[in-house]
Amino acid sequence: MNIRDVAEKAGVSISTVSRVVNGSELVKRPTRSRVLRAMHELNYYPNLNARSLAGGRSRILGIVVSNLQNPFFLDIFCSFEARALQQGYEVLLADTGYRTDRLKAGIRLMIGRRVGGLAAIVSEMDPSIQEELVRVGIPAVFYDVATPQKKISVIRLNYRHGMRQAVEYLYSLGHRRMAYIGYPMPLGPTEERKSAFLETMTAHSASSFTVAAAADGFVGGQEATRELLRSGFNPTAVLCVNDITAVGVLRELRNQRISVPKEISVIGFDNIPLAEFSSPSLTTLDIPRQRIGHLIFDLLAPSHSAVRSIGRETMISPELIIRESTGPVP
Amino acid sequence: MNIRDVAEKAGVSISTVSRVVNGSELVKRPTRSRVLRAMHELNYYPNLNARSLAGGRSRILGIVVSNLQNPFFLDIFCSFEARALQQGYEVLLADTGYRTDRLKAGIRLMIGRRVGGLAAIVSEMDPSIQEELVRVGIPAVFYDVATPQKKISVIRLNYRHGMRQAVEYLYSLGHRRMAYIGYPMPLGPTEERKSAFLETMTAHSASSFTVAAAADGFVGGQEATRELLRSGFNPTAVLCVNDITAVGVLRELRNQRISVPKEISVIGFDNIPLAEFSSPSLTTLDIPRQRIGHLIFDLLAPSHSAVRSIGRETMISPELIIRESTGPVP
DNA sequence: TTGAAAGCGGTACCAG
DNA sequence: CTGGTACCGCTTTCAA
């Protein structure tokens, strides 16, 4: 059941079949229908591998993310994919689990598939991989790692801005002793959150403390909280690297019968859907993930609205969303 | 930078390069290193499209799911993918968003890519699509829809068993008026949960009521709860089609100052990670998603542990996990 | 409007 | 151990 079979059955050449398959206008009506019927009767599915090979061109886009289980990445992927599919692109996904080897493997895979564009929305991106990508010269989008170039666009989040909003908001509520719960690994983007936190705290000469979560997820937040409570620092507010960590924090505080926000305020980062449905609901910094997903597509797909941003850096600012998990200092 | 360039640069034939790339043993040391160096210097990435085409064989597996945002599907995908990658397979993903047209498109895509196996873990599977898949004759795994055949394996969940556990547990706590919150669309698998619920209720001559959520997610559960409360049925317990719906329910009950489990008990389905971290934590029926993900791989990848189950039906039983969201009737 | 033929970049079999 | 070569299935000029 290849193009030749169809051609034979329809009594035409393979070129004609190809034209029909690709919706070319220049095929006469009756011919077209003969071909279509043949295709149907033979149950023909064009071989996309052959097509990609012959065409050379790429209706395929790739995206690699750090942790699908984190709604931040998942949402970006979903909105990106939706947009891409809708525009007739295929999309390839790789989840690295924050591991550099998997990142490398994922990117190699995509290059091997000759994707037309590649987004690396990962916290663990390292320079060597970046160079590799630049060398092959396919359009790419990086997340939070710098050096935009010819075909390399960068999306950056303004963590300082976000952190400042959060800290100042808490400060205005009377908080002076705040803790930050971050990632275990010293990954670029997450470190920026942390240092932004520390700087802002210093600027306000408030007292700060940081803990590293052992993992990206509920459990990480929970364990970090235990550590934090053991430390004796006694914060009145806790800022978290992201919302899932914050939900883990809420959980542990509840276990320890510490009331939020009465005794401690908690604030997250990302504004995932769950933030609104946790108990208490979570004050957080919204990151417009859907917009980011769409932007990634526009940056990767040729001739699109985002041309102006291609090869440049796009800065996105988080926005503070106040809910129930924060309140005045006791 | 194709295989020919490499061959030329290394002063060998393309066959030799191919051997090196594929790690064949029968290449002499010095030759191999010359080739490797050439590959490196030219920055060579084998064209996977060409490889898939020529090889005909399929180191690609496909999986299509209904809703990635639902951790049930996500977890299955992740464990499936992890296993597959680790075994050197490529995996293709499609998310249908419960839409039949997207399901069809996704499956066509995978067939076009000539995947070696295809898992359709979707609630909206319809017979025509199933037939299509059978016709092309690629190994497949279906979820909750029947007719195992030569190359078609089926994974089924024993909803009746699960529902019975849940209902009887609640009954033993004194509950007699229970409500069920299900999916909006009459999808096979989810209907089974509902009818299992109703039957068990009838068997115990307890009083039941059902509502359909408007969507799969927190909001769906929340809105369904409002509807339920308005109905005047006044249940002492609510069973939900899945955990995310249940979390939406918890939220709305909290909004209405209805205490869980003091006034109403809530029970979910799936046992997603969040179930343990919601407030209150969620009593639910555990579905071993990781096991399912691995099983899917074993069913699809040739010559594997699961051979005995290939082309047959594997029944999996949910197991009741009791947490804080359920308690004795007031 | 349709057909013929030259690739696309590999794989795998057959010789040597 | 290495090279030659016939495909894999489709796209894409170029002619007819």
List key phrases describing it:
homodimer, 330 residues, alpha/beta, 434 Repressor (Amino-terminal Domain), Rossmann fold, 3 domains, 6-stranded parallel β-sheet, 13 helices, 46% helix, DNA-binding
Your description of this structure?
The structure is a homodimer of 330-residue chains. Chain A has 3 domains: 3-46, 434 Repressor (Amino-terminal Domain) (Orthogonal Bundle); 60-158 and 288-317, Response regulator (Rossmann fold, 3-Layer(aba) Sandwich), CATH 3.40.50.2300; 159-287, Response regulator (Rossmann fold, 3-Layer(aba) Sandwich). Chain A has 330 residues and is an alpha/beta fold. The radius of gyration of chain A is 25 Å and the shape is elongated. Chain A has a 6-stranded parallel sheet with strand order 2-1-3-4-5-11, with helices on both faces. In chain A, strands 7-6-8-9 form a 4-stranded parallel sheet, with helices on both faces. The first copy, chain A, is built from 13 helices and 12 strands. Chain A is 46% helix and 17% strand. In chain A, helix 1 (3-10) crosses helix 3 (29-42). Chain A starts with a helix and ends in a 9-residue tail after the last strand. Chains A and B meet through helix 4, helix 5, strand 2, helix 6 and helix 11 of A and helix 4, helix 5, strand 2, helix 6 and helix 11 of B. Chain A binds a DNA duplex (16 and 16 nucleotides) through helix 2 and helix 4.
